[in-house]
Amino acid sequence: MTGALNAIEIRNGDHTLREAWEHGPRTYLGLMSAGFPNLFTVTGPQSPSVLSNMVTSIEQHVGWISRALEHLRDRGLTRMEATVEKEDAWVTTTNALANLTIYPQAASWYMGANVPGKERVFMPFVGGVGLYKQIADGVEAGCYHGFRLS
Prior knowledge:
By secondary structure, this protein is mainly alpha-helical. It is built from 5 helices and 4 strands.
């Protein structure tokens, strides 16, 4: 779930995404990571992604991202970035939901167990597409609350 993104040297100055995710992915809504403005991920870690019909999740993400970009354009803005506070809250939420299931007990690739030495963290959002969509739609309705726009 993180391998493709970690394989690229994504950086903002001296800060790399690989370093930011050293102890597991850190995102807000599975869409963006604090410190990496305008880096949108589609069906990234901490989104329903692999626990959903991927086409449904891809369409939901692309639509959400498209509307966010339109929101920026319509206001003459060019930058969007997740706040650290909302990223922290989302990481806590995804972990808390996962811990209500038996998923974290398995040595599966959902936990990163397929990569020797990788810290074990449950990576997808286990709350389902419906709940995820309600949360993401609420963030959108709140003018992208939890994101810094500039």
